[in-house]
Amino acid sequence: MRVVVCVRQGLDGELGPFDASAYEMALSLADAEVTLLSMGPATASEWLLRLTRLGAQKAILLSDKALAGADTLATAYALSLAVGRLAPDLVLCGRQTLIGDTAQTGPMLAELAGFDLATGVMGIRALGDGRALLDTREGEAEVALPALLTVEKVGTLRLPRLRSRVGEVEVWNAAALGADVARCGLGGSPTRVVKTFENQTGKRKCQWISMYELDRVIREGLGKQTPLADSEQSGERLARVCIVGESPRGFAELVSDDIVLLPLTDASELAERITALSPSAVLWASDSASKQLAARVAARLRLGLCADCTSLAVEGGELMMIRPALSGSVIAKIRSMTLPAMATVRTESGSVSDVIVGVGMGVKDDLGRVRVFAERYGAELCASRRLVDNGYATYDMQVGLTGKVVSPPVYVAVGISGAVHHIAGMQRAGTVIAINPDKNAPIFDYADYGIVAEF
Length: 455
Description:
The protein folds into 3 domains: 2-183, Rossmann fold, CATH 3.40.50.620; 207-226 and 350-451, Rossmann fold; 228-345, 3-Layer(aba) Sandwich (Rossmann fold). The protein is 24% helix and 29% strand.
């Protein structure tokens, strides 16, 4: 079986956690001939060469000035040409990188390559008879081969053996791909970053309280309402906005008075309806089904797509889409070079409780006490990435950039330091209460109430 794994070198020079899981999943398949596929500068050749020591037979690097500066659609286009040449049975991609954090390239690549698609893959149960049986975050799934799978953070990438064989790296330029350079790189990218600035989103004025006041502020927080979106309605309005599903309506109302609801259906039908309606913008929710469909429709219509927007505005008659980037450390303002503008907006994951207790490494040895505390309020337990990475909690509990987004009326952060990865997942909670023995912990910058104490 021929397997291609799409990988991207991170800003730290390493492989991101999702791409690492995809690579490990490929290496674990019996009788698989694994090829790595990446796009980047020529210097990435040495990085790919090191990765081949883990088991890939070879690596393909797409490198050309014409490919530089590509957004997700232009990247998916170039990758699709390479996939066409390699003709694999299976393509594995990490769910997202930590650079763009969009989770769009995989579904776009599947659409452009004409592959079946499954997202949120946790494992491959069986392969055979031209089909793959999978475990995903949504349950069991089956796809026809050739297929593209986007993989969750479910495995630890093996280390190279002492005498492991080094594979070969081939460098393909735009001409070798037979690429239409008008669809490549910055010039072929339908989205543009207008401005970036330091991420101050979610910062609050922390009021220090004692542990004895904790019950009171939790109950007061339950009586407050959580805002739906971070934007304020501006004077300028868009002519018409389509929403796919009901969840993005609050964002749409910020920028338009003419809102058309479209059902969550297949990509072909949605593409036809969007074309017929000619809206100024199309907004999608941030659940996995909506994000997958949005990416496929964008690829089908060759439209720009901005991911996980936390705010929207209208400037000069154009939609400005604001989203966190670079692991949440910066905020980017983005405009679309194509119409309609398309964006997924940061809608929260469903919660079974009005109170969520987020647990960090600071209380890894006291999880039993935290559970008793959570049960007192019927609270849902969630976790930081470090707690999950160290095996103290399961991945479905993880809140943050590489986990889920929540916005309960009350969020209690216990033993959480406050890394930007985690803040991205809980910053829209109604009332945030932080408990940490370190008064200088960053989490207090994002809390309404702070308790400096051991839990």
